[in-house]
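Service request form, structural biology core

Requester: graduate student, group of Dr. S.
Request type: structure prediction, single chain
Budget code: on file
Notes: please return the result as structure tokens.

Sequence provided:
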Amino acid sequence: MKKLVEEKTETIEKVENSLDKIDGVEVTEDQLIGKWYYAGQVKDGVENNFVFVHSENEKSSYTFLENGKFENKAPLEMTFEGKWKIKEDKKTLVIESKNKTEFFKITKIGEYELEIYNPKTETILKFTN
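Core staff response, request fulfilled:
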């Protein structure tokens, strides 16, 4: 058990450290609250506007609720739930689910667009609402 905890801590530290290399933008929780639909991604400067779908009639999405709950309607009709929060730096998004904690850097936010950097895949995920 100790080794598993050490490995998880080491992984979290590596991910958090890679986020330090990315400039983010400051956000408030109110700016994130709502449903954001997946609109593509950018990797190594190459934009891919392929949109994943959750089901036949619904795009994949992230939903941030006022009570701190989070829902990811992922491809293949899979749904993941957890909790979300903004770290003290006001640029880092933390999503906690049953089995993992993920860190993202918010790189752009507007009334109709959201972009977050995923350090695991080194991509910027694009969303619209």
